[in-house]
TrEMBL record:
<dbReference type="InterPro" id="IPR041954">
    <property type="entry name" value="CT_DMSOR/BSOR/TMAOR"/>
</dbReference>
<dbReference type="Pfam" id="PF00384">
    <property type="entry name" value="Molybdopterin"/>
</dbReference>
<dbReference type="InterPro" id="IPR006657">
    <property type="entry name" value="MoPterin_dinucl-bd_dom"/>
</dbReference>
<feature type="domain" description="Molybdopterin oxidoreductase">
    <location>
        <begin position="2"/>
        <end position="491"/>
    </location>
</feature>
<dbReference type="GO" id="GO:0043546">
    <property type="term" value="F:molybdopterin cofactor binding"/>
</dbReference>
<dbReference type="GO" id="GO:0009061">
    <property type="term" value="P:anaerobic respiration"/>
</dbReference>
<dbReference type="InterPro" id="IPR006656">
    <property type="entry name" value="Mopterin_OxRdtase"/>
</dbReference>
<dbReference type="InterPro" id="IPR006655">
    <property type="entry name" value="Mopterin_OxRdtase_prok_CS"/>
</dbReference>
<dbReference type="Pfam" id="PF01568">
    <property type="entry name" value="Molydop_binding"/>
</dbReference>
<dbReference type="InterPro" id="IPR009010">
    <property type="entry name" value="Asp_de-COase-like_dom_sf"/>
</dbReference>
<dbReference type="GO" id="GO:0030288">
    <property type="term" value="C:outer membrane-bounded periplasmic space"/>
</dbReference>
<dbReference type="InterPro" id="IPR050612">
    <property type="entry name" value="Prok_Mopterin_Oxidored"/>
</dbReference>
<feature type="domain" description="Molybdopterin dinucleotide-binding">
    <location>
        <begin position="613"/>
        <end position="729"/>
    </location>
</feature>
<comment type="similarity">
    <text>Belongs to the prokaryotic molybdopterin-containing oxidoreductase family.</text>
</comment>
<keyword id="KW-0560">Oxidoreductase</keyword>
<dbReference type="GO" id="GO:0016491">
    <property type="term" value="F:oxidoreductase activity"/>
</dbReference>
<protein>
    <submittedName>
        <fullName>Trimethylamine-N-oxide reductase-like protein</fullName>
    </submittedName>
</protein>
Amino acid sequence: MYPCVRESYLKNGYKSDKTKRGSDKFVRVSWEKAYDLIANELKRVYKDHGSDAVFGGSYGWFCVGSLNNPQALVGRMLGIAGGYTSRTCTYSTHAIRQITPYITGTDESTAPVTVYPVIIENSECIVFWGADPINTNQIAWGVPDHQSYMYMKELKEAAKKRNIKFYIIDPVYNNTGLYFGAEHIQIRPTTDVALMLGIANYLYTENLYDKDFVHKYTIGFDEFEKYLVGESEDMVAKTPEWASKICGVDANVIKMLAKEFVSKRTMLMGGWGTQRAHHGEQPNWMMITLASMIGQVGLPGGGYGMSYHYSDGGVPMPAAASGNALSEKPINGSVGAVADTENVAASPGLSGISINSKMDGPWKQRKINVIPVSRIVECLENPGKEYNFDGKAYKYPEIKMAYWAGGNPFHHHQDRNRMVKAWQKLDTFVVNECFWTATARMADIVLPATTEQERNDISKSHSNSYIFAMKQAVKPAGEAMDDFDIFVNILRRFGANEVLAFTEGKTKMEWVEAFYAESYDKAIKSGVKMLPFKEFWEKGFVKFETPESAKKFVKHAKFRQNPVINRLGTPSGKIEIFSKKIAGYNYKECKGHPMWFEPMEWLGSKVAKEFPLNLVSPHPKYRLHSQLNNTWLRDLEEVEGREPIWMHPKDAAKRGIQNGDIVRVFNKRGQVLAGAVVTEAVMQGVVRMQEGAWYDPAEPGKVGTLCRHGDVNVLIPDVGTSELAQGNQATALVEIEKFKGEVPDIGIFKAPKIKGV
């Protein structure tokens, strides 16, 4: 773990040969040398090209911690140094978080959902639609406390007593389906909207939908109704038979689902997988429309929710401690304490480091440019190009330098070969990293950063039930340094005022104490008991109780009780099945109401003649995206050291592939090796390969080379969902063949060649 610089960059700086990124040797340098190189390059780019030419929109899941959040810290440093271009949205929720505020007035990806105790008691039919909470709730944005598994166990037990029916609508029979013994509705990837439309059409034509709910709580159904029965747009009625031809679900099954949904108290649990697709705005819009037609929104155990699969979604949480003083009377003269009172079951939350300094200076006047996070490659390729996003027109800046900290874009971005080529347009690429990831190997300057185990910090659970002391467990490896210290030392090259603006005069431990003190003060004023910092740090955590009222929460219950007083945050105050605002944007691929748009690649497209298998790329079971892929956990799933790919027996037999064979998966975007797993858990015509395997190019830096390990994003297209969200995709059409010749060794888990070590 040492600061390293790409050899040709060390010799020639920003004029070096960019095509050598990934293949060049690295040279060990001192920290001082590395800081000088970075600071001087930042100053050059600011002077010659302006602040927009520096991209500091780091993105990724590393790490928990209120202080050592690399993404916030890199933005804070660059904002103080001279400005930068950042990003908006996430690869996880790009489409859903852009579309749903138009429909219900809130970002449904993180909006509260009906809690499990209510579902356990009231739901009669539960639909996991593109969701796998048994798998994905292992992780959380923050510290996972895994309460959802306790509730899912209770739900499973309740299902036996109350005969709760479970459905899983997915091309793959996933872990959640197995756990609950759910009936599997096999659906072709990216055709969920067609299935929903088929159900909706049947409800409408058979007069089974809830007219009263639609009339009272929604707006725009008249416009949608015309489309549903074939009186607008394509002039085709969206019957179950029409839907069946697209989604592959039998028309009689579609009718059965429609009748099932309205005859039982039904909860639609939507995942985020359906929105990571071409026209990914449509599935969530259509699911809310379908839930409205079923008419159970706001009823206990009914309606919809779109975050049950994420960070303990559905778990009752402590209420927010507002900080409003219950009493100003001190106890024993101690400032901030309150008079004796029954403790309130609430959580004060926990703040973290901001990208913005509170100190006065020129950085206060700087306006940060932003681009949609998944459009970074398009931005590099097309500086100055005008693009549409969320109702407005923008222009891509010309990026000359990028600084990444706490992320792995050469994992999470799509169309790897296109990305490799686009990255060659950068003059300089700097990375703070703990490991030699594919991203680090593509950098010009690599700075070794500490892991969570090597530093002190503070964090909380996503459920707000805990605040945790994150105590340093081991000394930093080699010369690794905290991201906080790295950025302080870069700013020393800019001036004392810049350093002060970054630190605000606090040491790292003082920042940790300050975050806790803010929560403590809010808690005490709200009547919530918390330990003083020293006691908290010694104990390691503080727990907040969940009030009984939180265990009765029903999504949209108040809205249903009185839609006038409790109006939604939409222009109409209602669920907007038709949005005048979106219609006014005049986008060709996202109109005024939910619709079926044919994806660029799906089993019904012309591309399927050459590449007849539809690849899906769900979240992995034994890692967090690409994290932990460089550990022994690989052995639990990999096939001969390759990422597994699930194939239906008939698809495998047609290609002469057997279980355990090494195969080449390819399309026009690229090629990867994978290990065949022949199973009926995946529907015929579909193959499954988890995202997150480390990119391992046979010829590093060369566009089109074979990935020896199985990075699925080599194969996924990098095309925005539509002009509304400009989100990312997670499916592709591919072909598979048994690999011929000697299987190459894996190289990504071996350190690159470094001079001076």
